[in-house]
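Q: For a teaching handout, I want to show students what a protein-ligand complex looks like in token form. Below are the inputs, and the small molecule is flavin mononucleotide. Please produce the holo structure.
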Amino acid sequence: MQPEDILREFQGTMRHIAAAVYAITTKVDGKRYGIVATAFSSVSFDPPSVLVCINQDASAHGPLMQADHFCVNVLGLANRDVADCFMTKKGEERFEVGEWQDEMDVPVLVNAQSSMICKTMDRHRFGTHTIFIGELVGAHHRDNAKPLTYYDRRYIDITAAPDHAIF
Ligand SMILES: Cc1cc2nc3c(=O)[nH]c(=O)nc-3n(C[C@H](O)[C@H](O)[C@H](O)COP(=O)(O)O)c2cc1C
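A: Here is the structure, written as tokens, with flavin mononucleotide included.
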């Protein structure tokens, strides 16, 4: 296959994989930084660990390289305003929407579906991105499990499916 054909098929593949949406946040020298991301995965329960992939051109990349900790806020349907604010504002202005609290010196979204505060354990550059591996040093799960979901280039309400379970 030609590289452009592989890329087209890959982009189509990713477009049709429904993904949860995260606000990845950190703080450096008293300034908060954040980015909307879908490239997240749990790594293991022992130790409890996760990874996120961040574009090296993103404004939060430098701060994530510097910071000791970051927070993965799992966005719920009620946090759509935070996702929109992160995409339209820059720097500290991204935190004008939503209730944010500092915990272990990283911004935690108080009404996110879940928040995982991570100590950065590894950073691995690959291509245009850096993979940040974090070990959980704090976590909150709030039981309103209505995830904001990204699918086919738009946000959807996955709980609105008429029949959630397929037997
Ligand atoms: C739904 C969605 C998912 C995204 N996922 C990622 C991601 O996983 N990693 C990433 O680096 N950027 C991701 N982006 C792009 C960033 O949010 C951001 O727009 C881009 O990096 C530019 O950020 P900047 O304005 O802070 O430089 C995503 C954007 C959207 C809307």
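A: Two things your students might notice: The first helix runs from residue 3 to 15. The chain has a mean pLDDT of 96.
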